[in-house]
Specification:
The protein has about 130 residues and is of the alpha+beta class. It has 6 helices and 6 strands; from the N terminus they run E-H-H-E-E-H-E-H-H-E-E-H. It has 2 domains: about 70 residues, Orthogonal Bundle (Arc Repressor Mutant, subunit A), CATH 1.10.10; about 55 residues, Arc Repressor Mutant, subunit A. It is about 50% helix and about 20% strand. The protein starts with 8 loop residues before the first strand and ends with a helix.
C-alpha cells in the first residue's frame, strides 16, 4: 500500500533529533541526500520563534527509530568522523578524542571513532545555538 500525502506527519526537527538521539545536522543531510523520505520546512513555535520542521511518513519514523540505535553503535575511521563533524583539520578529531568529547577505540590496530559519541557531540553543539 502506498502512503498518501495526508499520511505524513510534521514534527519539529529538534524534537525528532532528541527522540532518536541523532543530530539535526545528520537528519538534514540524510534528507537532502534522499537517504530518508522526508521534506524540510520552516514553521513558528509556540513562543513565536522560527523553527525547522520535518515532514515524513510513518514508515520513515519507524525506520529511523530502529536504525538510529544501530547507527549510533557503529564505529568509523577518523577520516569519516572528520566528514561527519564537517571538520577540515585532521588534528581537530584527535584533539576531540583526547578531550573526551568523542570516544574512540582500537579495532584491529586502527583507531575507530564511535558514531554515537559524534552524534552526542553534534547535539551538544546544536543545543548551544
Amino acid at each position: 500500500m502506498t502512503e498518501t500525502i495526508t499520511d505524513r506527519q510534521t514534527l519539529r526537527l529538534d524534537e525528532l533529533s532528541e527522540a532518536i538521539r541523532i543530530s539535526r545536522q545528520t537528519l538534514v543531510r540524510w534528507t537532502d541526500r534522499g537517504l530518508i523520505e522526508a521534506d524540510l520546512d520552516w514553521g513558528v513555535s509556540e513562543d513565536n520563534q522560527e523553527t525547522r520542521l520535518i515532514e515524513l511518513p510513518p514508515s520513515t519514523v519507524e525506520f529511523l527509530e530502529g536504525f538510529a540505535g544501530e547507527y549510533r553503535e557503529d564505529t568509523v575511521s577518523r577520516t569519516e568522523a572528520r566528514r561527519l563533524l564537517k571538520l577540515i583539520d585532521r588534528n581537530q578529531v584527535q584533539k576531540l578524542i583526547r578531550q573526551g568529547s568523542i570516544k574512540a577505540r582500537k579495532v584491529k590496530g586502527e583507531t575507530r571513532v564511535s558514531v554515537g559519541s559524534v552524534e552526542d557531540y553534534l547535539m551538544t553543539l546544536e543545543e548551544s545555538e
